Amino acid sequence: MEIFLSSCVFLVENFVENFYFTIRYRETIDREGFLLQNSTTVAFFLFLKGRTMIFLVVFALLGAPDPMDIHAGDFLDLDSREAVNSAGEAYQLEDWHKAAGEYLNVLRIDPANSTAIYNLACCYGLMGEEELATIYLRRAFSAGFNNLGLANMDPDFFPVRELPEFSSLLDSLNDASAELGELHWFDAVESFYYRVQFPDGFNPPTAVPVVIGLHGLGSSPDNFMGIWELVEDPDFIFVVPQAPYSIGDDSFSWYRGDHGSEEWGHSLLLAGEYVLALVDHIQLEYPVSEVYIFGFSQGGCLALYTGLSQPELFKAIIPASGWLAQEYIQPGWITEPSAMQIELMHSPNDRGVPFEASETAEAVLSEAGWDIELHVTSGAHTVDIEELNMILTELGLTGKE
Question: pTM for the full model?
Answer without folding.
Answer: 0.76
